[in-house]
Amino acid sequence: xxxxxxxxxxxxxxxxxxxxxxxxxxxxxxxxxxxxxxxxxxxxxxxxxxxxxxxxxxxxxxxxxxxxxxxxxxxxxxxxxxxxxxxxxxxxxxxxxxxxxxxxxxxx
Length: 108
Fold this sequence. Notes:
Blueprint: E1 13-16, H1 22-28, E2 35-39, H2 53-58, E3 62-66, E4 75-78
Parallel strand pairs: 1-4
Antiparallel strand pairs: 2-3
């Protein structure tokens, strides 16, 4: 994370121990930043595998930019304590949680 390419997912929250990286996570989210991807062409039938513009165009792919979701950047908060390799279980063995009120995106 953040994803290199466009994604249908909307970022809601980033939970991290590195709060100093919050501006990076928020500015790189597809919520607010357009992302590029490589499209196949007649001369490059498998160009979708390239994850950067230079490799894409060097192999005759077509690099295209897709606009951001144009919604707020994800919230960035201190990650709660979690035991290593226990799938997010926190103190007292209970799962860590994030309380989120679902937004209304209209007809989407």
